[in-house]
Amino acid sequence: MTYCVGLFLQEGLVLLSDTRTNAGVDNISCFSKQHLFHREGERAIVAMTAGNLAVSQAVINLIQDGLKHPETGKEETIFTVPSMFAAASLVGEAVRQAYRVHGRAMKEQGINFDVSILLGGQLADRTMRLFEVYAAGNFIAATEDTPYLQIGEHKYGKPILDRAVSVDTSLSEGVTLALLSMDSTLRSNLSVGMPLDLTVYRRDSLHLNDHWRFEEGNGYFQTIRERWSEALRGALREMPAPPFFS
Amino acid sequence: MTYCVGLFLQEGLVLLSDTRTNAGVDNISCFSKQHLFHREGERAIVAMTAGNLAVSQAVINLIQDGLKHPETGKEETIFTVPSMFAAASLVGEAVRQAYRVHGRAMKEQGINFDVSILLGGQLADRTMRLFEVYAAGNFIAATEDTPYLQIGEHKYGKPILDRAVSVDTSLSEGVTLALLSMDSTLRSNLSVGMPLDLTVYRRDSLHLNDHWRFEEGNGYFQTIRERWSEALRGALREMPAPPFFS
After folding, report:
1. Contact assessment for residue B204 and residue A207, using Cβ atoms and an 8 Å cutoff
2. Are A16 and A22 in contact (CB under 8 A)?
């Protein structure tokens, strides 16, 4: 399993992913699920993947190697597409190409063709976007009304986002929130695991230099995990007792 | 969908369920999922059900009408079983009986035989127990290490329980916690809905009189929903900012 979350904020993007992959609980590995495509000042694109690892890797390879545009016939890569919308279309086309090559054989082995991708970033003189691409290659964009997208094991980490994330949330608060959402997921689902990859993109910067890896025991992550648990317990003590029960 | 949660505490049991059933989003109804089997001073048993409504209702009927014990051949009902363990066995047998009658025909219509039951309570001079019965009729019991069980849409409401419930939690705190866990679920999954049914059982009391229904707009539930959201937002403001990001 996997948990990836992307926040689409006024100030920019917060993109956080775990690194655990597993083929059963007895076969656990560490793979980064975050892929950066960066040309300083020209394009800053991040893809995060969930689902079958072979499919995810095929898609990431295909968008770098290049695919023919289904209408123009022109070969395009993640480094040549002219907009984030075109980048999402390219990723969708790569997903369909992977399905054409591997889909039937996977089905014959009883394996689901299961993949989803969060794709966030910006190109020079274009709008910053955050997309979620599905296994059918179609996609949706985050908007101001729902300024976050999640893929993989999304349920445990959703309540805190539903309550606290708005498009006005600062990048700094967004980082803390994304980490707390990840913490809830890590606590409840063993198949999501450390280390974590975090990228913060500042709107209109076209830089992708704010990138960190959080290893087990990371000081800041440890601090906010503990303080959040304490704060929740404290808040609980402050709740009024049920007046109907004594 | 459904959400039911049972807390197994030193002081007793807290049992909370929603009432929404749905056959698609265009066919939503209200059914209580909480069933009380009570003989004052002799037995106090509560069953909460999730899954296919026809199967759940069949099981609840069967345990009241009576089933032959598979080994002794003796007819037993939820009012004659001698212990909570025997009650869980009876519910399991009822699930298997429902499967024998309806399982194949349901499968032919493409419908899963999907049911799970939380069964809590106590009989005179016996131990208080809380069980979860699965669709195969087998079951597990809550213990001091994991003093709660959930059925139905359990993921959204789990993080708060994982962080805050222990066997020493008081019944009054348990009520608040169960309602907050339900709140997280209601916010994120439309197929879980008000009103709510709550039963609190005090260990060794053999009474089942602490039973409430929470309608939409209930004052206490409204208050703790709002105060919990405020407390979370407040706690978030108090979190230290990520020192690596400025």
Report:
1. no
2. no
Which pLDDT band holds residue B29 (cuts at 50, 70, 90)?
Answer: confident
Phi, psi of B32 (to 5 degrees): -65, 140
Residues of A in contact with B227 (CB under 8 A): 238-240
Of B88, B171, B163, which Cα lies nearest the Cα of A241? B171
- Cis, peptide link before residue A195, omega less than 30° from 0: yes
Q: Helices (DSSP H) in B52-204: which residue ranges?
A: 53-65, 84-108, 158-164, 171-188
Q: With contact defined as beta carbons under 8 Å apart, do B9 and B145 qualify?
A: no
Average pLDDT over residues A202-229: 94
Q: How far apart are CA A34 and CA A18, in angstroms?
A: 9
Q: What are phi and psi of A238, to 5 degrees?
A: -80, -10
What would the DSSP string read from start to end of chain A? Answer: --EEEEEE-SSEEEEEE--EEESSTT-EEE---EEEEEETTTEEEEEEEEE-HHHHHHHHHHHHH-EE-TTT--EE-TTT-SSHHHHHHHHHHHHHHHIIIIIHHHHHTT----EEEEEEEEETTS--EEEEE-TTS-EEE--SSS-EEEEES-STTHHHHHHH--TT--HHHHHHHHHHHHHHHHHH-TTS-S-EEEEEEETT-----EEEEE-TT-HHHHHHHHHHHHHHHHHHHHSPPPTT--
Locate B37 and state its tokens.
């089997």
B5 Cα to chain A: minimum distance (Å) = 16
Comparing alpha-carbon positions, the chain B residue that sits nearest to A235 is: B231
The model's pTM is: 0.89
Using alpha carbons, select from B142, B119, B162, B123 the residue that is nearest to residue B4.
Answer: B119
Picking from B163, B168, B175, B223 by the largest number of A CB atoms within 10 A of its own CB, the best residue to mutate is B163
Q: What distances in angstroms separate CA A41 from CA A6, A10, A47, A205, B56, one per listed residue? A: 22, 20, 18, 7, 61
d(CA B24, CA B111): 13
Class of domain B3-237: alpha beta
Alpha-carbon gap, residue A19 to B246, rounded angstroms: 25
Let me know: does B53 contact B21? Beta carbons within 8 Å.
yes
Instruction: Give ipTM to 2 decimals.
Output: 0.85
Give residue-wise pLDDT tens across range B57-115.
Answer: 999 999 999 998 878 888 999 999 999 999 999 999 999 999 999 999 999 999 999 99
- CB proximity A224 to B under 8 Å: yes
Domain A3-238 of CATH type 3.60.20.10: yes
Nearest to B103 by CA among B58, B62, B71, B61: B58
